[in-house]
C-alpha cells in the first residue's frame, strides 16, 4: 500500500539516490564496487530514517554537466530501480529524467513520479508517458542554458550573469507555462508538483531571494518541492565544501518550510527529518 500525502498537514522528506559517477555532493553510487547493493542499503537507511519518498537520478544535473544517452541512463537506472522497488513495494519512487524513453521504462517497472528538471520544455512528449501511466509529475523551473558557470575546486560550480527583471515573477510565469503544457497533455492538477529550481540557472543571491520569497511560488496553488541540499549557494555563502553544508542545508530547509514548502529533497535524511518535524511544530501546529 503506497503512502498518500495530505498537502499542508506536514512536510514530507524525499531522499536522494544519486546514480551517477560525478555527483557534485560526492554521493554518486556508481563510484561504489556494487552500485545496486549500495543503493539498496542507502534506500533502507533513508526509509528507516523517515524518508517519505525516494528520488532516483541517473544523469548529473550539476552546473556544467554533460548529457548522457538514453541507453546509458537506462543502464544506470533500471537495475537499481527494480531492486529498490522489489524491496520497498510501499514507498513512493520518483525518477529524475527528462527523456520519455527512460520515463516509460521506469514507470513500467514501478516508479510513481517523474521529476523533470526542464518542466516539459526539453521534451513535451514526456507528458504523454506520464498520462499513460497515471503518474504524478514534478515540474521544475530551469534557466541553466542562460547562465555562465563559474567553477571553484573547493566550492563547485555556480551560475553568474543570470539576468532577470523580477526573478520570482519570472519563475512563476515560467512554472505556469510548464503547468499549461502538463494540463494540455492530460496530466490532472492533482498530479502536478512544482519545484522553483534552486541552483538551476540562478546566482547565489538569486537562490537566497527565491527561498526568501518562496511563499509567492506557493501561492500558485500547487504542492511545492524544494531542493537546497548541499548546493553551491550554501557553499559560497558559508565558504564550505559540499561535505560541510549540513547546517546550511538545515537553515535553508527550515526557512523553506516556513514559506510553504511541502516536500524537501535532501541527502541527509535523518537530520532533515528532525529539522522538518521541528519546523512543522512551529509553523503547522496541530
Can you lay out the helices and strands and say which pair or pack?
Elements: E1 12-18, H1 35-48, E2 53-57, H2 70-87, E3 92-96, H3 100-108, E4 113-116, H4 125-132, E5 136-140, E6 148-152, E7 156-160, H5 167-185, E8 192-195, H6 204-212, H7 214-218, E9 225-226, H8 232-238, H9 246-258, E10 263-266, H10 269-283
Parallel strand pairs: 1-2, 1-10, 2-3, 3-4, 4-5, 5-8, 9-10
Antiparallel strand pairs: 6-7
Major β-sheet profile? 8 strands, parallel
CATH topology: TIM Barrel
Order of helices and strands: EHEHEHEHEEEHEHHEHHEH
Backbone CA Rg: 17 Å
N→C terminal distance: 26 Å
Number of strands: 10
Poorly predicted runs are: none
Shape: globular
**CATH-assigned homologous superfamily:** Dihydropteroate synthase-like
- What is the arithmetic mean of pLDDT? 92
The helicity comes to 40-55%
Amino acid at each position: 500500500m503506497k503512502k498518500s500525502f495530505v498537502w499542508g498537514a506536514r512536510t514530507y522528506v524525499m531522499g536522494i539516490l544519486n546514480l551517477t559517477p560525478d555527483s557534485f555532493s560526492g554521493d554518486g553510487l556508481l563510484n561504489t564496487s556494487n552500485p545496486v547493493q549500495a543503493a539498496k542499503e542507502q534506500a533502507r537507511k533513508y526509509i528507516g530514517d523517515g524518508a517519505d519518498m525516494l528520488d532516483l537520478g541517473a544523469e548529473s544535473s550539476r552546473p556544467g554537466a554533460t548529457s548522457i544517452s538514453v541507453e546509458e541512463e537506462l543502464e544506470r537506472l533500471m537495475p537499481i530501480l527494480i531492486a529498490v522497488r522489489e524491496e520497498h513495494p510501499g514507498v513512493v519512487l520518483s525518477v529524475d529524467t527528462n527523456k520519455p524513453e527512460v520515463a516509460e521504462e521506469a514507470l513500467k517497472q514501478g516508479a510513481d513520479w517523474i521529476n523533470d528538471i526542464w518542466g516539459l520544455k526539453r521534451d513535451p512528449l514526456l507528458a504523454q508517458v506520464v498520462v499513460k501511466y497515471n503518474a504524478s509529475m514534478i515540474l521544475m523551473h530551469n534557466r541553466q542554458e542562460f547562465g555562465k558557470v563559474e567553477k571553484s575546486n573547493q566550492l563547485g560550480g555556480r551560475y553568474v550573469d543570470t539576468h532577470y527583471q523580477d526573478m520570482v515573477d519570472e519563475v512563476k510565469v515560467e512554472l505556469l507555462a510548464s503547468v499549461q503544457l502538463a494540463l494540455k497533455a492530460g496530466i490532472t492538477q492533482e498530479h502536478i508538483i512544482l519545484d522553483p529550481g534552486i541552483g538551476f540557472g540562478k546566482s547565489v543571491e538569486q537562490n537566497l531571494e527565491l527561498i526568501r520569497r518562496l511563499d509567492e511560488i506557493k501561492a500558485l496553488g500547487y504542492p511545492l518541492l524544494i531542493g537546497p541540499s548541499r548546493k553551491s549557494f550554501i557553499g559560497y555563502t558559508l565558504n564550505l565544501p559540499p561535505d560541510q553544508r549540513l547546517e546550511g542545508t538545515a537553515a535553508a530547509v527550515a526557512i523553506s518550510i516556513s514559506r510553504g514548502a511541502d516536500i524537501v529533497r535532501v541527502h541527509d535524511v535523518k537530520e532533515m527529518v528532525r529539522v522538518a518535524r521541528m519546523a512543522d511544530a512551529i509553523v503547522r501546529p496541530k
